[in-house]
Each structure stands twice: as structure tokens, then as C-alpha cells.
């Protein structure tokens, strides 16, 4: 690619030189001298400069580092850059000694000038010497003789001719390039005034954001539309107000006329009343005569017309009076006086009516005046607003046309300065407020965290207590199971005894019925004594059954002595007494077992109390969880506030950047701006610290929330056990009260078995879910710890520069996500580095051979050395990341150990579940014992009934044999009942068999659980094997790390050797460049060597493409602008760009 660019440039040079040679034969020597003068910008020899445009030097002096230069300057630079490769073949004219000296100076300074170009990093140091050289060339134009063109043409070497041919080919593309550059330059120069106008007249600063410009224009259009709408609305309102005003004026005129008429009528009526009161009857006569007089003034007055309007009765009265006065005489006073009085009364009434109407009209006038005043005010306001709007529009137009750009700039600058100062003050106040708010919020969070820590410690203590109580309950349950087993055994023994007793009872009744009455009398006596003893036993329950049993055989012996049939009675009596004694002992056992059951029930009650306490603790835990949720919500709100603060800070930064453009014009405000910027940076650092504190608080809240969730899961696991215990207690109570609910209990047990199976499956699912959650949490913790370690390392490394530190943090966060890929990248880079090292060794050999190469190659090697050092630094970072990954693998091993501990816990839980199943079996046995007790109670009731019958036989001993037969029938009924009891017993035995079958099924379930436990152990073994494999991988990673360290040490040794050799080469170059050749033959040799080196460099540029690719990738991947600025000259030298 670079060879193509060089070939194209050489082609353009050759074409231009050929074109110049064809068109103007005398232009080759000045062009060559101009190229020499440009190359020898650091010397003070006499040269001929190329003629330049008048604005070129001024543009350079005005803006030396500006990017948008004039197209003429670009053209001159383009020509000079194109002609620079022809310096190696410039001929030496033999005319003057001055040109020889100049050429010798060229030979000296070509190396130094180009060395200065290669040595400068980013400066513009080569511009002032160019100017000096050009000025000196201009001064010495008249003194320097022009060499003849014929001497240059035949001496051109074939390389220059080929380049001239290439220039001829490039001649077609050059004007297009120049034209496109001029167009681009024109656009770039037109952008600045446009942006300046945007800054001065709009809130926009650049053309880069067209969306902001469209929004601004849309806002202006909206403003115009709103103003037009307001004008239309105001004009319509004005017209409405004018119409209302005209209507109100008309109403006011009419009302004024009415008021005038009313006031005149009122004055006339007042004068008439006063005349009447003063004159009396004579005046009445005069009035009557005046009424008869034919004067038209009083009749045709407007007052009378108005009175006539308001009093319609007046005119007919007047006509009647006139007719009467015409018809009657003046001397009839009696008839006229009452008429006059009636007239006076009617007029007084009319006057009162008129006064009330006048008052109403006055009120209406007042309201009309108020309305008219308000309308007038509104009209005045509207007219003022219209005039102001018109005046404002006129003023704006006149200001836009009259005010000049300088006044606008001054005003905008002053306004911006004032606004910036006000904004800075406001921002400082806002920042202080936000600081106070954030500090208060952080204090609240810390206090809440302390409270949550205290609650967490309390909960931990409560959980410890609960676990201890649970362990005690487990021990109690084990003890109870042992006791239940013993009771079960005693139950079985009692059942056997009861069976034997029933058999004996069935054998005992068939005694001879035809016994003597004396025998029948004696047997009831013995039975009464036995019944009395049994009653005493029922009252006292202990210690007195033996005496009754002893008395019974004595009496039976006495009865045997007195009985006439001695062989039959002594055989039956002792068997019954023994049976009764055994029944008494069995009853005592039953009572003792009832007492034990009561004790067990009390213990169960205490266990229920403990469970209630556990429920209260769970509720407390739920409350605390809700508090944590609220705290999380508050943390989210704080995060939103933090985002708002960041947005405000960004706005403040934008405002500060906008104010910085105005502050640059004023040197006085720069110190204040710097101080404000420092304060802003301090606030930024504080905000970052606050963000880190918030992150730590969030992490603490998350850990607390995770602990609470784990506690909740523990409680949820304890819940089914508590529920099962409650159900068992309820079942114990129900078994005491109800005997008929046995089948329902069996069904409930079957349901419970199914529920236990489902619970086992749920527990397995929960265990799997917890394992996955734990894995994810561990991965998150590992990533967070890795991020924290990397951030700490980056803070240690980047303590000097805050921006650099932020970039490194971002890179570290990105590197945390790419940690898995970087191992492969390390290996790939190692494989890439080995051929690179070989290439470096080859380049070192080339450096040893080529001791007389130019300083640019040495600079290239130094840049390669710096890049190699950067690569070494990256390798060190990668080794550090390998160590971090080692730590991660160790943490994973620890996590696997924790998982093994959790599996052990799960095994313990499975054993506990098996114990619960055994407990359920024991409870079933207890129910069977309760059934046997119920049977014993029935037997006791039967015995009581038998005692009652015997007592009746004692009372009815004197009755007939019929009563004996009835008693025998009753005995037969009792036998039937005993048979029914035996049948019930057989049914109970069948149920016991069913219980045993179910017990066997439960044992099969236990065996399955044992198989699952074995599978879990197998999984634990697999986990251990995976642990061993991971440890082997860690060892292999450590071995690879050691290998990398060894290779790095080897690379360091080789680089040190290369650095020493480079230093020696640089020293030799310095010595060789200091010694100049005074003769033209030395210059020719240097130029030939340089041309050979250039051609060699051109030829050797092909194998360095991989190196150039790596440097370009580093330049593109680098985010720090400073490091990019350091890499720019290296790229320029590699690509052989000129300044």
C-alpha cells in the first residue's frame, strides 16, 4: 500500500518535472534551487526561493498551528513535497563558486534538516527556518546567477526520468485533487463565521448536532404561531369589547336621558308640594283657576308629559276637571275640596312610586357605570398591549436593521459574562445544597444500615435460639418415639392378655344352671364383695384391688365349705378372681399410660408455644424484609437523584465550556475561572467518592437482603415441619374425642404420604435452584472482587491523572467481561511475539551492518523499542490478570467446598424427614393403643353391668326361677355383646395388619431415600473429582505463568541488548552527522548512499507490514489522547509523512 502511494507521488513528480521541462526550459534550475532551499531550511546559505502569494507568510505568522491553510499554501507545499525525492539527483552546475558552496551546504544540511524533521514530535519548529531561508533567497535573487538549462537536462539520472514520467501521468489527477481541496477549504472557512453567528444569535455552538438546530427552528416556529394565535385572539377580543362598549354607550345615553327627565319631574313635584303646604285653600283656588286658564305653557311642558307617561290616571282626571270647571261655577267649594284631597293623595302615591323607580334607576346606573369602567379598563389594556406589541415588533425590526455586529457582540459578551457568573453562583449554591442533601441522605443510610445490622444480629441470635429449640424438640421427639415404642410393646402384651381373658370369660359362663338356691345366694355375695372392691378401685385407682381379690377367694372357700356340692364351685371361683385381678392390673397400666399421654400432650403444648414464637420471629423477619425492600427503593431513588446530579454536572460542564469561550477574551476572569474549575473538579471527585460509597451501601444492602432471603428459606423449610407437628397435635386431640374417624385418618395419612413425596420433590427442586443461585451469586462475587482488585491496581498506577484513571477503570470493567477471552489472546500473542522477536533480531543485525544509515531509521528503531516496552507493559498486565484468575479459581474451589457442606446439610434434612416418617408410624401405633383402650373401657362397662346384674340377683334371690331365667337371658345377651366385641377385635387386628403393610411401604420409601442419599454421595464424589480437575487446571495455569515469566525475562534481556546497541548506533550517527564533507564528491557519495538507502527502505518496506498493522491497531485501540499524540509522530515517520 505504501509502495503504491510512493509510486503515485513519484509519478506525479516525474510528470510535473517533464511538463515544466517541456513548457519552460529555464524553470528547472529555479525549481531545483527552491527544493534545495526548502530542504536546507536550517542553514543561512544564499538560495533562490519559489515565488509565493502575498498572503502566505501572513497566514503562517497569524496562525502557525491552524489546520485550514490557504489553497495556495497547499499547492506550494504539494509541489515541494513532490519534489523532495529529486534532491538525491540534483546536478551541480559548473558556472559559479557560490553554487558549489550552496550545494556543499545542501549536502551538509540535507541530513540535519531531515533529522530535525524526524526528531521533532509534534512541534512546528521547522517553519521559522523555512521563512528565514526564503527571505534570504529573496534577497539574493539578483546576485545569484541562473545556471543554463541545457546543462541540467542531459545529466538527469534514469530514476528522475521515471519519476518525471509518473508526474506526467499524475498531471490529470492533480487539478482535481487541488479543486476538491479548495472546495473543502472553502467549506471549512465558511463553517467558522456560520458557527460564530450561531453562537452569537442562538444557543447552539457547532454544526455537528443538526437535531438541536431543527429543535431550535421548531421552537421559533412554535413561538411565531403562538404569537399569531395571541394576536388573533386579542384582535377578536378587541372587536368584541368594542361592540360591547358601543352597546354600553348607547345604554348609558338612554339612561342619562331617563335620569334627566326623572330629576326634572322630581323637582316639579317637590315645588308643587311646598306650594300646597304654604298657601292652603287660597292657593287651591288659584290652582283651580290656573287649571281653567287656557295657558299652553303648563299643559305642554315636558315635565307634565313625563308625569303623564308614569301616571296614566292623570289625563282623564284633568279632562273631567276641565269639563266640570267649564260646566260648573266658581262658588262650589264643597265639591272641589274632596276632589283636591283625592288628587293630592294620588299624586303623593305616584311620587313615592317615582322615587322608588328613581332609586332603582340609580342602582342600575351605578352598575352600568361599573361595567362601563371595567370595559373601558379592559379596552385600555387591550389597546396598550396591541400598541406595545406593535411597538415591540417595530423596535425589533429597527434594532435588527440598525444595530451593528460589534454592538451585538459586546452585549452578548457582557450578558454571557453576567449570566455565566450568575450561573456559576447558582451552580455553587445548588452544589452546596446537593452536597448537604447527599450527606444527609448518606447519614440516614448509614444509620439505617446500622439499624439493619443490629436487627440482623438480633435475628441471628433469634435464629440460633430457634435452632437450639429445634434441636431440643428433635431430642424430645426421639425420646417420645422411644416411649411410644415401649407403650406399643406394652399394648401388644395387654392385647394378648385381653385375648386370654376373653377366652377365659367365654369358657367360664357354662356352669350348671340347676344349682341350689344356697349356691346362688353365696355366689352373689362373693360377686358383691368383688364389685365393692372394684368400685373402691375405680375411686382410688391404686393399691386396693389386691385386698378385694384376696377377700374374694376366702369367701369363695367359705362358700365352698358350706355348699352341698364341693367339687364344682372351687374350680370356677379362683379363675374368676384371677381374671378380675388381672383386669385391675391392666386398668392400672391403662391409667398410668393415660397419665403419660397427658404429660406428652403437655409437652406438645409447650412445643406449640415454641412454634408460635417461631412464627412471631418469622413475622419479624418479614417486617425486616419489607424494611429492606423500602430501603432498596430509597436506594433506587438515590440512584435516580445521582443520575440527575450527573446530568446537572454535565450541564454545568457544558455551561462552563460555553463560558470559557467568553472568558478567554477577558484576562481578568481567567483566575476565577481556574479556581471555579478546580472547585468543580473537587466536587466531581467528591461525587465519585459518593458514588463509590453508594455502591458500597448497595452491595451491603444486597448482602443483607440475600441473608434475609436465606433466613426466609430456612423458615419456609421449618414451616412444613411446624405444620406437621400442629396437625399431629390436632390428631391426638381428635383421637381422644372420636373413635369413628379412623378411616378418615387413614386417608389423611395417605394424603400426607403423597404430600411428603411432593415435599421431597420440592425440596430437591429447591436444592437445585439454590445451587444454581449460589453459583450465580458466587460468579457475581468473583467478578466483583476481580473488578475491585483491578480498580485498586488501576488507582495505584493512575494516581497522577484523573482522566486517565477513569479511562483505565472503564478498560478494567471491559477487561473483566473479556477475562475468558484474554487467555486465548495471551497464547495467540505469545505465538505472535516469537516471530516478532526473530524479526527484531534480524533488524538488530541489519543495524549492526548498516552503520551509515540515516537518523530516521534510528528513530524508527527507537519507536519500535518504545512500542516493545508498551507490549512488555501489556504482558505484565496480562500476568497480573493471570494471578487474578488464579485467585478466582481458588475462590471457586472454596465455593465447591461450601457446596459440599450444603449437600451435607441436605443429607441431614433428609434424615430428619425420615425421622418424621418414623414419628408418624409411632403415632399410628399410639392410635391403635387408644383403640385397645376403648375396647378395655367397653369391657369394664360390661363388667359393671355384670356387677349390677349380680346385685339385682342378690336383691331378687327370693324371686322365682323365672327371674333366674331372665338373668340367664341377660347373661346370654352379654355373651353376644362379648362376641360382637371379639368381632370388633378381629376387625382391629385386620386394621393393624393394614398398618403393618403401610409401615412396610414407608420402609420401602425410606430405602428409596437411602438410595437417593447414595446418589447424592456419588454426586459429591463427582464434585470432588471436578475439584481435583480444577486444581490440576490451576497448576497448569501456574506452570504456563512461570513459562511466560521466563519468556518475559528472556525478552527483557534481549531488549536490553538491543537498547545498548541502539545507543551505540545513535552515538555513531551523532559523530558521523557532526563531521561534514567539504567537497562536492562527498556530497555526491552521501546522496548516492542516501538514494540507495531510500531505495532499500522502499524495497524493505514490504516485510514490515505486520509491524505497521500492530502499531495502527494500538493507535486505534488507544483511548487516551496523550498516548495517541505520542503515537502520531511514530506513524508519521513510518508512513513517511511530512509536516
From TrEMBL:
Residues 7-24, 54-63, 97-117, 127-144, 316-327, 378-395, 490-502, 590-608, 922-953 have a biased composition (Basic and acidic residues). Residues 1069-1080 have a biased composition (Polar residues). The keyword Coiled coil applies. Signal peptide: none annotated. Residues 1-161, 310-330, 369-399, 486-608, 922-965, 1069-1101 are annotated as: Disordered. It comes from the Eukaryota. Residues 534-544 have a biased composition (Basic residues). Residues 145-157 have a biased composition (Pro residues). Residues 33-44, 1082-1093 have a biased composition (Low complexity). Residues 1098-1139 form the GRIP domain. Keywords: Coiled coil. Residues 231-272 form a coiled coil. This is Golgin imh1. It comes from Gnomoniopsis smithogilvyi. The lineage of its organism: Eukaryota, Fungi, Dikarya, Ascomycota, Pezizomycotina.
Amino acid at each position: 500500500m505504501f509502495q503504491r502511494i510512493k509510486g503515485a507521488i513519484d509519478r506525479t513528480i516525474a510528470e510535473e518535472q517533464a511538463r515544466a521541462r517541456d513548457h519552460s526550459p529555464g524553470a528547472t534550475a529555479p525549481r531545483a534551487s527552491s527544493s534545495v532551499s526548502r530542504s536546507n531550511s536550517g542553514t543561512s546559505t544564499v538560495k533562490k526561493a519559489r515565488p509565493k502569494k502575498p498572503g502566505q507568510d501572513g497566514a503562517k505568522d497569524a496562525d502557525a498551528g491552524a489546520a485550514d491553510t490557504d489553497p495556495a499554501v497547499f499547492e506550494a507545499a504539494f509541489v515541494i513535497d513532490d519534489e523532495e525525492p529529486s534532491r538525491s539527483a540534483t546536478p551541480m552546475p559548473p558556472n559559479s563558486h557560490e553554487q558549489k558552496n550552496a550545494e556543499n551546504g545542501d549536502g551538509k544540511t540535507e541530513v540535519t534538516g531531515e533529522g530535525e524533521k524526524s526528531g521533532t514530535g509534534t512541534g512546528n519548529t521547522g517553519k521559522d527556518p523555512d521563512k528565514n531561508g526564503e527571505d534570504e533567497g529573496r534577497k539574493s535573487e539578483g546576485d545569484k546567477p541562473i545556471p543554463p538549462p541545457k546543462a541540467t537536462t542531459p545529466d538527469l539520472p534514469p530514476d528522475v526520468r521515471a519519476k518525471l514520467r509518473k508526474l506526467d501521468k499524475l498531471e490529470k489527477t492533480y487539478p482535481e485533487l487541488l479543486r476538491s481541496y479548495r472546495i473543502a477549504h472553502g467549506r471549512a472557512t465558511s463553517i467558522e463565521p456560520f458557527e460564530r453567528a450561531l453562537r452569537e444569535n442562538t444557543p447552539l455552538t457547532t454544526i455537528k448536532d443538526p437535531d438541536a438546530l431543527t429543535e431550535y427552528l421548531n421552537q421559533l416556529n412554535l413561538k411565531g404561531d403562538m404569537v399569531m394565535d395571541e394576536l388573533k385572539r386579542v384582535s377578536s377580543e378587541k372587536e368584541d369589547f368594542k361592540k360591547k362598549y358601543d352597546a354600553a354607550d348607547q345604554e348609558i345615553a338612554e339612561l342619562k336621558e331617563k335620569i334627566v327627565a326623572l330629576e326634572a319631574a322630581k323637582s316639579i313635584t317637590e315645588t308643587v308640594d311646598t306650594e300646597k303646604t304654604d298657601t292652603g285653600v287660597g292657593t287651591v283656588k288659584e290652582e283651580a283657576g290656573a287649571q281653567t286658564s287656557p295657558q299652553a305653557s303648563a299643559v305642554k311642558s315636558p315635565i307634565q308629559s313625563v308625569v303623564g307617561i308614569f301616571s296614566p290616571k292623570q289625563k282623564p282626571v284633568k279632562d273631567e276637571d276641565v269639563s266640570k270647571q267649564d260646566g260648573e261655577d266658581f262658588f262650589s267649594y264643597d265639591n272641589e275640596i274632596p276632589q283636591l284631597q283625592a288628587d293630592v293623595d294620588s299624586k303623593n302615591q305616584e311620587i313615592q312610586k317615582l322615587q322608588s323607580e328613581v332609586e332603582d334607576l340609580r342602582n342600575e346606573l351605578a352598575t352600568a357605570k361599573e361595567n362601563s369602567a371595567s370595559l373601558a379598563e379592559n379596552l385600555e389594556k387591550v389597546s396598550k398591549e396591541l400598541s406595545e406589541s406593535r411597538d415591540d415588533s417595530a423596535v425589533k425590526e429597527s434594532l435588527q436593521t440598525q444595530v451593528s455586529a460589534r454592538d451585538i457582540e459586546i452585549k452578548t459578551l457582557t450578558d454571557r459574562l453576567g449570566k455565566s457568573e450568575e450561573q456559576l453562583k447558582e451552580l455553587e449554591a445548588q452544589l452546596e445544597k446537593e452536597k448537604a442533601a447527599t450527606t444527609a441522605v448518606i447519614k440516614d443510610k448509614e444509620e439505617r444500615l446500622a439499624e439493619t445490622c443490629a436487627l440482623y444480629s438480633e435475628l441471628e441470635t433469634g435464629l440460633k435460639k430457634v435452632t437450639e429449640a429445634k434441636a431440643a424438640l428433635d431430642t424430645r421427639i426421639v425420646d417420645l418415639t422411644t416411649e411410644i415404642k415401649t407403650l406399643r410393646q406394652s399394648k401388644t402384651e395387654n392385647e394378648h392378655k385381653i385375648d386370654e381373658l376373653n377366652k377365659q370369660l367365654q369358657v367360664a359362663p357354662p356352669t350348671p344352671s340347676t344349682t341350689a338356691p344356697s349356691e346362688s345366694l353365696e355366689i352373689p355375695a362373693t360377686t358383691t364383695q368383688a364389685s365393692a372392691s372394684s368400685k373402691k378401685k375405680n375411686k382410688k385407682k391404686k393399691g386396693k384391688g389386691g385386698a378385694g381379690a384376696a377377700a374374694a377367694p376366702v369367701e369363695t372357700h367359705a362358700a365352698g365349705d358350706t355348699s352341698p356340692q364341693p367339687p364344682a364351685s372351687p374350680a370356677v371361683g379362683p379363675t374368676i378372681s384371677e381374671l378380675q385381678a388381672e383386669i385391675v392390673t391392666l386398668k392400672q397400666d391403662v391409667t398410668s399410660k393415660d397419665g403419660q399421654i397427658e404429660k406428652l400432650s403437655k409437652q406438645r403444648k409447650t412445643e406449640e408455644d415454641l412454634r408460635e414464637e417461631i412464627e412471631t420471629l418469622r413475622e419479624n423477619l418479614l417486617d425486616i424484609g419489607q424494611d429492606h425492600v423500602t430501603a432498596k427503593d430509597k436506594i433506587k431513588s438515590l440512584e435516580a437523584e445521582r443520575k440527575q446530579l450527573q446530568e446537572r454536572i454535565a450541564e454545568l460542564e457544558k455551561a462552563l465550556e460555553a463560558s470559557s469561550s467568553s472568558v478567554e477574551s477577558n484576562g481578568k476572569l481567567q483566575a476565577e475561572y481556574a479556581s471555579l474549575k478546580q472547585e468543580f473538579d473537587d466536587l466531581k471527585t467528591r461525587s465519585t467518592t459518593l458514588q463509590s460509597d453508594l455502591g458500597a451501601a448497595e452491595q451491603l444492602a444486597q448482602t443483607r437482603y440475600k441473608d434475609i432471603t436465606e433466613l426466609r428459606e430456612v423458615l419456609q423449610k421449618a414451616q412444613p415441619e411446624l405444620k406437621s407437628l400442629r396437625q399431629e397435635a390436632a390428631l391426638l386431640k381428635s383421637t381422644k374425642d372420636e373413635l369413628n374417624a379412623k378411616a378418615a385418618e387413614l386417608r389423611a395419612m395417605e394424603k400426607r404420604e403423597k404430600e411428603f413425596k411432593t415435599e421431597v420433590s420440592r425440596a430437591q427442586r429447591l436444592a437445585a435452584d439454590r445451587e444454581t443461585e449460589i453459583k450465580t451469586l458466587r460468579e457475581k462475587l468473583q467478578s466483583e472482587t476481580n473488578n475491585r482488585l483491578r480498580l485498586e491496581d488501576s488507582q495505584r498506577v493512575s494516581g497522577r491523572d484523573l482522566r486517565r484513571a477513569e479511562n483505565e477503570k472503564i478498560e478494567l470493567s471491559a477487561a473483566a467481561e473479556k477475562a475468558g477471552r484474554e487467555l486465548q489472546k495471551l497464547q495467540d500473542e505469545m505465538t505472535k511475539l516469537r516471530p516478532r522477536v526473530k524479526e527484531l533480531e534480524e533488524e538488530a543485525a541489519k543495524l549492526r551492518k548498516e552503520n551509515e544509515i540515516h537518523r530516521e531509521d534510528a528513530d524508527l528503531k527507537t519507536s519500535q523499542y518504545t512500542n516493545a516496552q508498551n507490549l512488555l507493559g501489556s504482558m505484565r498486565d496480562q500476568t497480573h490478570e493471570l494471578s487474578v484468575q488464579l485467585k478466582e479459581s481458588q475462590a471457586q474451589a472454596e465455593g465447591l467446598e461450601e457446596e459440599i457442606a450444603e449437600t451435607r446439610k441436605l443429607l441431614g434434612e433428609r434424615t430428619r424427614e425420615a425421622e418424621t416418617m418414623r414419628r408418624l408410624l409411632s403415632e399410628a401405633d399410639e392410635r391403635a393403643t387408644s383403640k385397645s383402650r376403648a375396647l378395655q373401657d367397653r369391657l369394664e362397662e360390661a363388667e359393671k353391668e355384670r356387677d349390677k346384674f349380680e346385685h339385682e340377683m342378690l336383691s331378687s334371690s327370693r324371686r322365682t326361677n323365672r327371674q333366674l331365667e331372665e338373668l340367664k337371658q341377660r347373661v346370654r345377651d352379654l355373651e353376644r355383646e362379648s362376641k360382637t366385641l371379639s368381632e370388633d377385635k378381629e376387625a382391629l387386628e385386620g386394621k393393624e395388619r393394614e398398618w403393618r403393610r403401610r409401615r412396610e411401604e414407608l420402609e420401602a420409601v425410606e430405602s428409596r431415600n437411602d438410595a437417593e442419599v447414595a446418589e447424592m454421595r456419588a454426586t459429591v464424589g463427582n464434585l470432588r473429582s471436578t475439584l481435583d480437575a480444577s486444581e490440576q487446571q490451576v497448576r497448569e495455569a501456574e506452570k504456563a505463568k512461570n513459562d511466560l515469566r521466563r519468556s518475559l525475562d528472556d525478552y527483557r534481556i534481549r531488549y536490553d541488548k538491543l537498547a545498548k546497541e541502539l545507543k551505540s548506533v545513535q552515538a555513531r550517527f551523532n559523530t558521523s552527522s557532526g563531521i561534514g564533507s567539504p567537497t562536492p564528491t562527498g556530497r555526491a557519495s552521501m546522496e548516492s548512499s542516501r538514494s540507495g538507502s531510500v531505495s532499500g527502505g522502499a524495497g524493505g518496506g514490504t516485510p514490515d507490514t505486520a509491524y505497521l498493522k500492530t502499531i495502527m491497531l494500538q493507535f486505534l485501540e488507544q483511548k487516551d489522547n496523550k498516548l495517541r499524540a505520542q503515537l502520531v509522530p511514530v506513524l508519521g515517520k513510518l508512513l513517511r509523512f511530512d509536516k
